[in-house]
Amino acid sequence: MNESTDVHRKQSLDQLSALEKFTEKGIDFLDNFNRFVRERQKIEMDYAAQLKRLVKSYSPKRKDEEEYKIYSSLRTFKGVLQEVGSIANQHELVAENMVQSVFNEVVKLRQELKKERMDHLHEAKQEDAHMEKSRRKLDSCKSQYRSAHEAWLQAKILFEKADSDDNRTKAEVERAKSTMEQKDQFREKQKNEYILQLKNTNEDQQEHYSSKLPTIFNKLQAMEERRITCLGKYYETYADCHKKVLPVITQCLDDIQVKHGQAVTPAEDSQALITKFETGNQPPKDLPMMDLDEPGGRGQTQAPEKDNVSIGSQNGANSLPGRGKAPKNKKGVFGTIFSSKKGSRRWERGRLSGLWASEEAKDFSHLPPNQQKQKLQGKIDEIQGKIDQEVKQKEALLKMRDVYTANNSLGDPNSLNKQLETIGKKIDLLRLELNTYQEFKDKADGKGGTPSQKSSPTRSSGPPANVPNSPSKERPPSSPLSPLEHEDSFIDDDDFDEDEGTAADPKPVGTCTAMYEFNSDDPNLLNMVEGEVLDVIEKDSGDGWTRVRRSDNSEGYVPTSYVNHL
Q1: Residue closest to 526 by CA, chosen among 486, 559, 490
Q2: What is the pLDDT of residue 4?
Q3: Which contacts of 525-532 are long-range, i.e. CB under 8 A and separated by 24 or more positions?
Q4: More reliable by pLDDT, 298 or 118
Q5: Which of the 8 DSSP states describes residue 324?
Q6: What is the DSSP letter of 311?
Q7: 507-529 pLDDT, tens per residue?
Q8: Residue 209 CB-density burial (10 A; 0-12 exposed, 13-18 middle, 19+ buried)
Q9: DSSP-assigned letter for residue 216
C-alpha cells in the first residue's frame, strides 16, 4: 500500500475519532443542562410549597373568621395571604412549564441526536471498511500480477537457452517456447485484472475522500449545529417560563400594596370595635343619698329604682315568641348563670328537650341588645343566602325537566322529581328556620308578635310529619308539606300564664281555590278538599304558608303551593 494513502487514511480516522468524541460530549452536555433544569424546577416547587404552608399557617382559624370580616386590618391581611397564595401558584406554574417546555424537550432531543450520531458514525465506519476492502483487493491483484510476470520471465529465459543450445532437440525447444507463451498469456491476464482493480480502487478512493467522507462529516456538523441551536432556544424558553408569570406576580404585589395596604382604615376598625361591643344599655341612675338623720332609718338607704335594662332581650327575660308572658318559675339571666350544678343540669335537659330552652339558645339572648341584633341579622342573612342557593338549583332542575319533557330522548323528566322533592324539603326547613330567627329579630327590635303569628305553623312546630298525597293530582315536589323530621317538644302550658288576649277577626285580603286535598291533625292548620273556595286572611310572607278562612269562620294555615289565588 502506498505510504501517502496510509497517511490520508490515518488522518481521516483521526478526524472521525475527534468528531465522535466531540459529539458525545455535546450529548452529555444536554444531560448536564437537563439536571440543571430539574434542580431549578425542584427549587420552584419547594418555594411554592413553603409559601402555601406559610399561607395556611397564618390563615384565620374558624373561631377568628368573624373578626377577619369586620376589621379592615385583618380583612386586608387575609387578602394579602390570598395574593401570596396566588404567587405560590405562579411558581408552581413556572416549575410545570420548565418540565413540559424544557426538560421533556431536551430528553426528546437527546434521544434523537444519540440515534442520529450512531447512524452517522456507523455509516462512516462502513465506508472506511469498504475502502479498506478495495485496497486489499488491489494489493492481491498486484501480487498475482507480479508473480505471473516473474514466472513469464523465467520461462522466457529457459526458452532462450534451449533455442541457443544446439544439443537440444527441436521438440524440447518447441516445448520451452509453448511454456513461455502460456506464462505470457497468464501474465497478461493478471496484468489486466490488476489494471482494472487499480482503476476501481482509485475511483473508490476518490469518492471516499471527496464525497462520502465529507458528506458524513457534514451530517455530523449539521447534527451538532442543530443541538447548539436547540440549546439556545431552550435557554430562551427557560427564561420565558419565568417571564410569563412576572406580570401576574407583579399584579399580586401591586394588589398587596394598593388594594390591601391602602384599604386599611383605622376609623373603620375603631367603629367596628365599638359596634361589636356596644351594649345599648342605659347608664345607671344617680346613687341615692344615705340619710342618717332620718328618724327610724338609721343605716338604711333608699332602694334605687330598677333600670329598665335587659341583658338577654329588650322585651323582657326569656319570653317565648308568640306568648304573652315568660314561664312562671323563671330565675332570669343571672339566675341561670349562677345557679347550682343541679339546676344547670336541669337547664341543660330542658335545653335539649324543650322548645323554650332551644329558642333561648338560638336567640342570642345572653348578649347585650345591640350585639344580639347583629347576631340575629347575620343569621338571617346566612339562612336567606342558603334559600337563594336552593331556589336557583330548583329553578335549574325545573328547566331541565321542561327540556326532558319536550324531548324524551334527552332523559326522563320523572327522574328529577326526587331531587326536586329533596330541594323542596330543604327550602321548607330553611324557611321555617328563617321565620324563627326573624321573630327573634322582631322581638329584639321591640316589635313583638301578633295574635296571628301565635297560630302560624312556621312559628310553632312546623308542618305535619306526614301529609297524604292528593288522590287526583300529584303533589308538587316543592311543597312545604314534604315530610320533616321534627321533634314536637314544648313546655307544658302550665308553665305559662293563660291570659292571652283575643284579637278581632281580620278582614279577607282575597280568595283562593284548593288545587289539592290537604289533611292534618295540627290545630294550627286547616283541612281542605280539592276545589274548595277559601278567603285569604294573610298572604304568604315567604315561608310557604297562607292563612285562610272558611265560610264557617274556621281558619288556619295551608300550604301556598296547594292553593290557586283568584
Answers
A1: 559
A2: 65
A3: 525/457, 525/463, 525/464, 525/556, 525/557, 525/558, 526/550, 526/554, 526/555, 526/556, 526/557, 526/558, 528/558, 528/562, 530/470, 530/472, 530/473
A4: 118
A5: S
A6: S
A7: 888 999 998 888 888 888 889 99
A8: middle
A9: H
The pLDDT score that the predictor gives to residue 401 is 85
> In angstroms, rounded to a whole number, what is the distance separating the alpha carbons of residues 566 and 556?
19
Average pLDDT estimate for 464-488: 38
Three-state SS string over 408-475 comes to: HHHCCHHHHHHHHHHHHHHHHHHHHHHHHHHHHHHHHCCCCCCHHHHCCHHHCCCCCCCCCCCCCCCC
Tell whether pTM > 0.90: no
Q: Give phi and psi for 272, each to the nearest 5.
A: -65, -40
What are the CA-CA distances from residue 57 to residues 54, 121, 252, 289 (Å)? Answer: 5, 59, 20, 58
Stated length of the chain: 566
Give the residue with greater pLDDT, 345 vs 231: 231
The whole-number pLDDT of residue 182 equals: 92
C-alpha to C-alpha distance for 179 and 165, rounded to whole angstroms: 17
Cα–Cα dist 526/547, whole Å: 9
Contact predicate 537/509, CB 8 Å: yes
| Average pLDDT in the chain | 78
* Number of H-type helices and E-type strands within the chain: 14, 5
Query: Between β-strands 510-514 and 545-549, what pairing exists: parallel, antiparallel or unpaired?
Result: unpaired
**CA angle at residue 201 from 198 to 205, to 5 degrees?**
140
State the pLDDT at residue 331. 41
Longest dimension (CA), the chain: 199
Classify residue 5 as exposed, middle or buried by CB count within 10 Å of its CB (0-12, 13-18, 19+).
middle
Contact predicate 563/534, CB 8 Å: yes
Q: Could you read off the pLDDT of 363-421 as tens digits, one per residue? A: 787 777 777 888 888 889 989 999 999 999 888 888 888 888 888 888 888 888 888 88
Cα distance between residue 418 and residue 431, in whole Å: 20
According to DSSP, the β-strands at 555-559 and 510-514 are: unpaired
In the block, residue with C-alpha cell 308553665: 495
For residues 145 and 193, what is the distance between their CA atoms, to the nearest angstrom? 8
